[in-house]
Structures are given as structure tokens and as C-alpha cells.
Amino acid sequence: MKINDIDSSRMLIHVTDAKGNKDRYTILSTNALKDLREYYKQWKPQEYLFEGIKNKQYSTGSVGKIISAAAIKAGIRKHVTPHTLRHSFATHLLENGTDLRYIQLLLGHNSTKTTEIYTHVAKSSFDSIKNPLDL
């Protein structure tokens, strides 16, 4: 991710060259923006927001290792990958009532059929919902 991919005025992140060489926009958290600004002030990256050796972008493997280490540090015992974070993001959006078509756009899916994979995970939260006809 390059520094210019963060659009703080619109609270968006421009995701370039994602799976299938597709570009898309996704939402930027206010909390994440605050942390990114602190990070930027301290580390002063030049091109990539998170720069590795010789100011180059991190490899996919390095990102995976960083996420795994953060999960362990947070006390999460499950194996966590970048895709786990993507899956959690989509599931939380769905459970909070975000329309499936918006989630599709945020994830860069061509079809809602692909996005519907996340609905089976969210259905477990439906168990706690009481039907008004049963009250």
C-alpha cells in the first residue's frame, strides 16, 4: 500500500492490484487513521506506507508473519492470516446490517454469490434473535 492510497478526506483506502489484478476502494477506520498518522510522524515512510528493507514494500510472507505475531501477542490461539482479517471484516459488516451489495463492493467481488459465502458465518448470530411473533 502506498502512502497516496489513503484518502483521509473521504475516509477511503484505494486497494490496487488486488486479487485478479483488480482495484477497488474500501473504508478507512477513524481509529486506524489516527494510528496511521502517529506511525507516519514517527517513521516518515517515503513511498510505501509500511516500508521494509531499502524502503521497499513488504512481501506477502512478511505481512503474514507480522499478523501471526500480532495475533499471538493479543492472546489469539487460532491461526490468523491476512485473509482471516478480510473474512472477519466482511462478517462483522454483515452482522451489523450492512447490505450485501456494499460488502461486495468493499471486498471487490464481481458477484454477490461470492460474497454470500459470508452469510453462513453470520447466521450463527441469528440464533439469539427473537421472532416478534414469538414474543
UniProtKB/TrEMBL annotation:
| Presence of keyword DNA-binding | yes
Which SUPFAM superfamilies does the annotation name?
A: DNA breaking-rejoining enzymes
Q: Read off the InterPro entries from this record.
A: DNA_brk_join_enz, Integrase-like_cat_sf, Integrase_catalytic, Tyrosine_recombinase_XerCD
Q: Which UniProt keywords apply?
A: DNA recombination, DNA-binding
Signal peptide location: none
Q: Which domain of life is it from?
A: Bacteria
Q: Does the keyword Oxidoreductase apply?
A: no
* Annotated Tyr recombinase domain residues: 1-134
Q: Which family does it belong to?
A: Belongs to the 'phage' integrase family.
| Protein name as annotated | Tyrosine-type recombinase/integrase
Q: Which organism is it from?
A: Bizionia hallyeonensis
